[in-house]
Structures are given as structure tokens and as C-alpha cells.
From TrEMBL, chain A:
CDD domains: Commd3. Belongs to the COMM domain-containing protein 3 family. Residues 124-191 form the COMM domain. InterPro entries: COMM (IPR017920), COMMD3 (IPR037355). One of its GO terms (biological process) is sodium ion transport. PANTHER family: COMM DOMAIN-CONTAINING PROTEIN 3. Signal peptide: none annotated. This is COMM domain-containing protein 3.
UniProtKB/TrEMBL annotation, chain B:
It comes from the Eukaryota. The gene is COMMD2. This is COMM domain containing 2. PANTHER family: COMM DOMAIN CONTAINING PROTEIN 2, COMM DOMAIN-CONTAINING PROTEIN 2. PROSITE patterns: COMM. Residues 123-193 form the COMM domain. Pfam families: COMM_domain.
Length: 193, 202
């Protein structure tokens, strides 16, 4: 993995037993994953009692470096050997590499989901609701007497949701369902390849 | 049921017996054309010049016909009721028959035009789909995410042939959920409850 000089430096101090002892190393790894997944850049994560003895600048550099390394690894879908060799090159002990890797494995799925949610996408259908109505008459026409459906597709895009509403006749709904079933069949076939 | 024509409406239509049957036929054609595509006042001017009558007279005549056609189509009145309704106008038998033919030939089309007016919600027209697999994106390489991309064509609420299409995506499990939800909707049509209501409201 290609890493910038400052990231390399930050990881080297993280590997350094005289800067991070065993306890604070483990907490920093833990905190780095947490910064990405649950605390979303909350600066107070570095206020742990384990970090009291550590130089605050070094601490921040190492935290930033660890977070960058994690993101880069998830982005590249790095495997164990890539991660281990990168960390060992940066003077990580076998034990520290192992601690880091097990945390990485534990959170990888969630991080992938996080990264996959960044960027533009099409509105994603999450659910549908429907209502069956019987149109009897209106201001313009009497004796219409037609059943019809009101369909609402709930979509989400970049955190905002929108409902797409339309009406359709019974035949049109049959057409719609038929097409979606075709698509589902194709999808099933493709998944068996 | 009989149509109740207002005095004003009767007065507007009273222009019709003063002209030739061919002219009434032409007015009928214009009235239907206007119902289909909207009115254009220029046509009134041209017709008024030819007939040597004021523009308002032609306009009232055509609009009176349009209103007569839309009202009778709206209530879908029977042949007999139509003739009884126009009886009060005191037109000749021939003219009444002409109006009846105009009504009978065009009432279903007029109803379909009218039925487009009140719908404020877009209507389903078509759906196209495509199966995609997302392989990578800037923030994440080596992905494998199957996706169904769809384009839903909706006809615009103001009717006519304007389409509005939306491009949407969904994942395989939501697709299956959508299918079962919409199948439940179709099944609701076949229940005894729905059949009973459809049968009894006529």
C-alpha cells in the first residue's frame, strides 16, 4: 500500500513501544475504528486516560495515520498479507500487527458499507405502499366506475427520502409486477453463475 | 336523466337553426376539435367572416355545442334522454338528429378527455429494467454489488402524451419484497370484499 510520509511517520510512532505502551496501543487502535464508525470525527475520543502520558502532537499524528491506513486498506480491499507486510515494514511487532488485523477484520464489513455510501447514486427504492380505490365519478365525468391503484415507491438518496407516487389500472399493475418478476428471475439466474 | 339547460345556454344555441345543416356539421367538427386540442379564437373569426355574423355569435354557438356535448357525455345520458333534453330548444327534427349523432359518435372520446382532467397524480405507463453489478467506486475498490436499475415512465398529470421518467435502483432483496407487496395489491382486487363492491356500485 502506498502511504504518504506523514502517515508512515505516524504509524512508526504507533509501533514505538516507548511512545505507546501495550495498553495505550490497544486503545488507540480501538479509538481509530470508533472514530470512523460511531463517533464520526468527535475530537474527545483522544481524551482517554490511557493517552495522558503521551505527547499530544504524536498522539494526533498517530491517530490520523491509523485512520488513514484503515480507510486505504478497506478501499483497496487489502488482505491479511498486504496489511501485515505494510505494518511490519513500518516496524510493527508481530503482536501489534495481529491486534490491528483482528480489529480490522472485525470492522471491515461496516467500513465497506460506510465507504460504499459515499458518493452519488441513483435514488434507491426501499419500500412500496399501495391503495386500491374505486373511481366512481368526478366533477367532469359521471359513472366512471373504474378500480385503480395508487402506488407509492419510497426511495432514498444520499440520506434524503422521497416518495414517487403514481396511479395505475389493474392491467398496468399486472404489467409492472410481471416486469419486476422477469427482473428477479434474471437476477436469480445471474447469481447461480 | 334529463339535462337542464340554462337560459343563457339556450340563447347561445339558438344561433344553430339560423344556419345551414352543413354549417352546423362544421360547428360540431370544430367543437370536437377544440375539446381535443384546446380552442383557437382565430377559427371563430374566419367562420364569422364567411357567415357575415358577429364573432361572438359563432363563438357562443361552438361553445354551446361543446358544453352540450361535455354535459351529456359526463352523465352518459341515453339516446332518448338526449333527444328529450334538446327538445326544449325547439330545433327541427333533422337538427336534433344531427346533434344526437354527434353525441353518439363522440361521447366515449369526450369521456376519456374529461377523465384526464381531474387526475393530479402521474399515471404508470411503462417500466424498463437492467441488471447491473457495481464493481468499484472512488471510495471503495473491488466491490460486488448487484443492483436492478429501472426507468419508470409516468404520464404527466396534465394528461396527453408527455412522459416523465424516473431512474431508480434497488437491491435484490428489496426487489423480492416489492414483488410480494404488489402481488398482495393485485390479490386485493380478487377478494370477495372488492368483488362485492364492484358488482354493487354501478
Amino acid at each position: 500500500m502506498e502511504l504518504s510520509e506523514s502517515v508512515q511517520r505516524g504509524l512508526q510512532s504507533l509501533a514505538d513501544q516507548s511512545v505507546f505502551d501495550h495498553g495505550s496501543f490497544q486503545v488507540l487502535v480501538d479509538v481509530s475504528f470508533r472514530s470512523l464508525l460511531s463517533s464520526h470525527g468527535d475530537p474527545t475520543v483522544l481524551g482517554q486516560p490511557e493517552f495522558k502520558q503521551i505527547d499530544q502532537i504524536l498522539l494526533k499524528q498517530s491517530h490520523t495515520a491509523a485512520v488513514t491506513f484503515i480507510l486505504e486498506a478497506v478501499k483497496q480491499n487489502a488482505d491479511q498479507s498486504t496489511i501485515s507486510s505494510s505494518l511490519e515494514e513500518l516496524t510493527f511487532s508481530a503482536e501489534r500487527t495481529e491486534i490491528f488485523y483482528s480489529a480490522y477484520q472485525k470492522h471491515k464489513k461496516d467500513l465497506e458499507r460506510l465507504l460504499a455510501s459515499i458518493g452519488r447514486g441513483l435514488p434507491h427504492i426501499t419500500d412500496a405502499s399501495w391503495r386500491l380505490e374505486y373511481h366512481m365519478k368526478n366533477g367532469q365525468v359521471d359513472k366512471v366506475n373504474d378500480p385503480f391503484y395508487l402506488i407509492s415507491l419510497n426511495t432514498e438518496n444520499e440520506g434524503s427520502s422521497e416518495d414517487i407516487n403514481f396511479t395505475c389500472t389493474v392491467e398496468q399493475l399486472q404489467d409492472l409486477v410481471g416486469k419486476l418478476k422477469d427482473a428477479a428471475k434474471t437476477m436469480e439466474k445471474a447469481s447461480q453463475m | 336523466m334529463l339535462l337542464v339547460l340554462s337560459e343563457e345556454h339556450k340563447e347561445h344555441l339558438s344561433f344553430l337553426p339560423q344556419v345551414d345543416a352543413a354549417v352546423v356539421g362544421e360547428f360540431g367538427r370544430i367543437a370536437l376539435e377544440f375539446l381535443r386540442r384546446g380552442a383557437s379564437p382565430k377559427v371563430y373569426e374566419g367562420a364569422a367572416r364567411k357567415l357575415c355574423v358577429p364573432v361572438e355569435m359563432v363563438q357562443h354557438g361552438v361553445e354551446g355545442l361543446m358544453f352540450l356535448m361535455t354535459e351529456s357525455s359526463k352523465h352518459m345520458i341515453s339516446e332518448v334522454d338526449f333527444l328529450d333534453s334538446v327538445l326544449v330548444l325547439g330545433f327541427s327534427e333533422e337538427l336534433n338528429q344531427m346533434l344526437l349523432q354527434l353525441y353518439l359518435q363522440h361521447h366515449s372520446q369526450i369521456r376519456s378527455i374529461l377523465s384526464h382532467l381531474p387526475s393530479s397524480v402521474p399515471a404508470y405507463h411503462n417500466l424498463e429494467w437492467r441488471l447491473d453489478v457495481q464493481l468499484a467506486r472512488r471510495s471503495a475498490r473491488q466491490q460486488f454489488i448487484p443492483m436492478l436499475t429501472m426507468r419508470v415512465h409516468l404520464t404527466r398529470s396534465d394528461g396527453h402524451s408527455d412522459f416523465n421518467s424516473r431512474i431508480l435502483q434497488t437491491d435484490p432483496s428489496t426487489l423480492l419484497h416489492l414483488i410480494s407487496t404488489l402481488e398482495a395489491a393485485l390479490a386485493a382486487m380478487k377478494t370477495g370484499h372488492a368483488r362485492r363492491i364492484l358488482r354493487n356500485i354501478k
